[in-house]
Amino acid sequence: MLWIILSFFLIFGNLDASVIRQKRQLSTRPIWPNATYLFHFDEVFPEWRKKLVWEVMDFISSVTCVKFQESYEEVVRIISQNGTRCASPVAYGGGIVNLKPGKFCDNAINHELLHSLGIQHEQERSDTAVYLNVKKENQLFLNNSEISIIAPFDFGSAMLYAGTENLKPYDMDYYYTMGTLPLSFFDIYNVNKLYSCTCAEELKCENFGYTNPSSCDKCICPDGFFGKLCNELKKEPIQPTHSWQTLSKTVENETLYEYIALPHQNATLEIFVAEFDENPLGGCHGGSVEIKYLPDPRFTSPKVCSHDGGRYLKVRASSNNPTVIVYHEGNKPLNYEIKYRYV
Ligand SMILES: [Zn+2]
To answer: Which run of H or E residues covers position 210?
Structure first.
């Protein structure tokens, strides 16, 4: 199992080192005019794979004001070439997005498209040193102070590499959270800010949501909150007691939610993952559980998919009402046992 994990990290770590030099030149280039990304696929790009790319493009268009349009003038060319990496220049200006055949680059489509729209790596922000222990001799990870910081640093960003010996979080609870594949709340927020996507009228979104610039009649919500105004839950919250209770769940190919309420304003929920089937892949992309105990639900809380050091047993205190539990879908059935009580 270890070699699988290591090889994932190594590949991910080299995701697009070849374009670091390019990026520094391109990072000051303007964003795509009219928020319209012009591209065409290489002649040999397989039809079935175009669908994967379009799925990601359609998703980005559904939560931002960015549109994707096939064109043969001043464009990005999306190619599928063996022997090279997944890579993309950063920002407007044409160039080549290379999606090497295979599952790895299929999973990195949203990462590369966000580069193409102008979003840099999370580990290259000027405030990286606060969160990450980056080995200086590793030239891949440059502290690029030219990058403008829009959203706060988030360990659940799809623009952050998976943890390695050369790239470790100071808070090791986040080691396996790093390298997440889906776009995070703040990844999408960054695109909206970069392209000044707004609505004529702002809705009164709850739970830190904001008006969706693609559909101004509904909000974009942090994970766990739903509905037009982010004030709906997937199910009724569980009422905790003073004594420890156990919550068991089996999860496979569907993200599931649970909510635990607080009985009164001064109560605090104590909660931890007691047991689970581990699947320790970088970014926990084979499935994980995330107890969202941070007060601001836009941030990713540590995703648990590894028994590493018994860290998962740490009791988290949450004053959120309700506390959201996200069981992120996996690639095989995984069993979780969570214990909780209020104090
Ligand atoms: Zn990258």
So the answer is: strand 210-211
